Amino acid sequence: MALGLRANAAQFSLLVAVNALVGGMLGQERTVLPLLATRTFHLTAYTAALTYILAFGVSKAATNYVAGTWSDRYGRKPVLVAGWLVAVPVPLLLIWAPSWGWIVAANVLLGVSQGLTWSTTVIMKIDLVGPARRGFAMGLNEAAGYGAVAVTALATGYLAQAFGLRPAPFLLGIAFAALGLGLSTVFVRETRGHARLEAANHVARADGRHDHLHDELTDAQVFTQTSFREPALSSASQAGLVNNLNDGLAWGLFPVLFAATGMSVARIGVLAALYPGVWGLGQLFTGALSDRWGRKWLIAGGMWLQALALALVALGNTFTLWAVAAVLLGAGTAMVYPTLLASIGDVAHPAWRARSVGVYRLWRDGGFAVGALLAGVVADAWGVRTAVWVVAGLTAGSGLVVAVRMYETHLPAASRAAA
């Protein structure tokens, strides 16, 4: 057993493929579900229409937390396989749902599944790759997941345009669930031993940070450090929450905003795919960049770029301007997403890292629920564009918190050598 990307290339690549399938399960909803809410189920209130994102966010956030604990207790692979088993009924429920309540129930299951599967693929890649290339590993993981979200959002837009909103777009989800379950059950191997190997050879930071964060922390202590006390961990947690708050807004309200101009479902699908597409591909570069340049300013700058993009969405009325905004939003998110995960891996001790990742992802994906509630209430009261402006302001403020409170968690190689 050895740590490193080269030493574990086969398993790492397999986990990248599995996470692409996880992303595809999410992508099947991005274009179609907001339109199902208004056109098939005739929901007129934005708050009611966004209940599926609220259900998804709450269930995924809670499951992220237990996924980290269960991964330490029972192993990574059993949690991954369990997540795929929960995913199997989701596309079937979306196809056959007779009422909106069934759609909400399907998204509870989707949230549980995503919490178990995405969390464990993150934890397993961190286990395998070791500390030196953690940002690059997270970039590959998130690029695969959100690249698949984009491709599936685009594909479902064209399928919906050609064959209707149901069932054609969700047939992709059936294929993804079957393939993901099969690969995870037969070919994925347990990685908990790699984390134990890293823990046995763990070296403290030269600057003395984290000396109080030894390897014997209770679940409550891990939650407190990650959420509130430790400056870098808590800064990452709030930034993750706000990032997914604006993603929940983009998922739930952007297609409705675009459709209000008379735009076709296929063109809405292009816009719905552009944002996660740039996000996904960009992470191939930003994760590795954070290994060279450090984490803090990529995170702060990414939050500010997202805020600018949201302002352009609020101001826009044309496909071209919205496409530019989607590209900028994706680029900002790409700067933030793998870098936040890498910063958690930098600070958390290998003995409790899986639990810390779970707590961070609890806060991050809780942003979906907060975003659905906030965006729905504001949009119902003052309109969709006002909701976008409010979230843009919150996103800019989150970047400021990172700039002020977070320290650099990963010293570039030259700085480490000098120290």
Automatic annotation (TrEMBL):
<feature type="transmembrane region" description="Helical">
    <location>
        <begin position="297"/>
        <end position="315"/>
    </location>
</feature>
<dbReference type="GO" id="GO:0022857">
    <property type="term" value="F:transmembrane transporter activity"/>
</dbReference>
<keyword id="KW-0813">Transport</keyword>
<feature type="transmembrane region" description="Helical">
    <location>
        <begin position="248"/>
        <end position="266"/>
    </location>
</feature>
<dbReference type="InterPro" id="IPR011701">
    <property type="entry name" value="MFS"/>
</dbReference>
<feature type="transmembrane region" description="Helical">
    <location>
        <begin position="143"/>
        <end position="164"/>
    </location>
</feature>
<feature type="transmembrane region" description="Helical">
    <location>
        <begin position="102"/>
        <end position="123"/>
    </location>
</feature>
<feature type="transmembrane region" description="Helical">
    <location>
        <begin position="170"/>
        <end position="188"/>
    </location>
</feature>
<dbReference type="Pfam" id="PF07690">
    <property type="entry name" value="MFS_1"/>
</dbReference>
<dbReference type="InterPro" id="IPR020846">
    <property type="entry name" value="MFS_dom"/>
</dbReference>
<dbReference type="InterPro" id="IPR036259">
    <property type="entry name" value="MFS_trans_sf"/>
</dbReference>
<dbReference type="InterPro" id="IPR050171">
    <property type="entry name" value="MFS_Transporters"/>
</dbReference>
<feature type="domain" description="Major facilitator superfamily (MFS) profile">
    <location>
        <begin position="1"/>
        <end position="410"/>
    </location>
</feature>
<keyword id="KW-1003">Cell membrane</keyword>
<feature type="transmembrane region" description="Helical">
    <location>
        <begin position="46"/>
        <end position="67"/>
    </location>
</feature>
<protein>
    <submittedName>
        <fullName>Putative MFS family arabinose efflux permease</fullName>
    </submittedName>
</protein>
<keyword id="KW-0472">Membrane</keyword>
<dbReference type="GO" id="GO:0005886">
    <property type="term" value="C:plasma membrane"/>
</dbReference>
<feature type="transmembrane region" description="Helical">
    <location>
        <begin position="321"/>
        <end position="341"/>
    </location>
</feature>
<keyword id="KW-0812">Transmembrane</keyword>
<keyword id="KW-1133">Transmembrane helix</keyword>
<feature type="transmembrane region" description="Helical">
    <location>
        <begin position="7"/>
        <end position="26"/>
    </location>
</feature>
<feature type="transmembrane region" description="Helical">
    <location>
        <begin position="388"/>
        <end position="407"/>
    </location>
</feature>
<feature type="transmembrane region" description="Helical">
    <location>
        <begin position="79"/>
        <end position="96"/>
    </location>
</feature>
<dbReference type="InterPro" id="IPR005829">
    <property type="entry name" value="Sugar_transporter_CS"/>
</dbReference>
